[in-house]
Design brief:
heterodimer, A: mainly beta, seven-stranded mixed β-sheet, about 0% helix, about 50% strand, globular, B: mainly beta, six-stranded mixed β-sheet, five-stranded antiparallel β-sheet, 11 strands
């Protein structure tokens, strides 16, 4: 596609429910990154994929958070048993092997009630 | 996680004024980046700096990579209403194999009064 896309754009859920956030990177981009942005804050790194493997998961806040990537394309970030502090914008970015520039999607705004 | 120290947090300026913001870190970075984020959008790269001491311009934007590799500043000259947004600095280090780790500042929210 033309850019990185994410879905849903907005998600409201109840505390304790699981949510899945999807990222479609730019076609052919080998690296994919997930970030979390709390209100009024900068971006916190969560996890990155090189191909389908995740060499660095150090940013995942707890074991309730997991992510996978398949076909060196789509990635899903899953948050289990959501808590109110999980409310944030979740941003995905991708980059090609030839250029280090990370291109960001528009984000998924998650609100946990 | 680690974040860079970015200041100021917010700015209200008159259209036509110049703007300056900066970032500092306790760690060295190979590359400094400046992004702009508008409401409802992801950050968009404005300027990338690759060498200590480098001064780079992109239109009305000028950024510098500090000599110590631990700081950077961004200047916007003759601000216009469409400059409104949140500006983020980011330090970059390579993971290897064509992927890179970004550490972001908390952002500078710019408001331009027409």
């Amino acid at each position: 596609g033309a850019g990185v896309s994410q879905s849903p754009s907005n998600k409201v859920t109840e505390k304790g429910k699981d949510v899945e956030l999807r990222c479609d990177p730019i076609s052919g981009h080998t690296a994919l990154y997930w970030y979390r942005q709390r209100l009024g804050q900068g971006l916190e790194f969560l996890i990155y994929f090189q191909g389908n493997s995740a060499p660095d998961k150090s940013g995942l806040p707890s074991d309730r958070f997991s992510a996978e990537r398949t076909g060196e394309s789509v990635s899903t970030l899953t948050i289990q048993r959501t808590q109110q502090e999980d409310s944030a914008v979740y941003l995905c970015a991708s980059s090609s092997g030839q250029s280090e520039t990370q291109y960001f999607g528009p984000g998924t705004r998650l609100l946990v009630l | 996680g680690q974040q860079l120290n970015q200041s100021p947090q917010s700015m209200f300026i008159q259209e036509g004024e110049d703007v300056s913001m900066n970032c500092t870190s306790s760690s060295i970075f190979n590359t400094w980046l400046w992004y702009k984020q508008e409401p409802g959008e992801g950050p968009v790269l404005l300027i990338a700096l690759y060498k200590a001491g480098e001064l780079t311009s992109n239109g009305r934007l000028t950024a510098q990579f500090g000599i110590t590799r631990k700081d950077s500043f961004l200047n916007i000259s003759a601000s216009i209403p469409s400059d409104v947004g949140i500006y983020f600095c980011a330090g970059q280090r390579p993971y290897g194999a064509g992927s890179y780790q970004l550490t972001f500042g908390k952002g500078t929210k710019l408001s331009v009064i027409p």
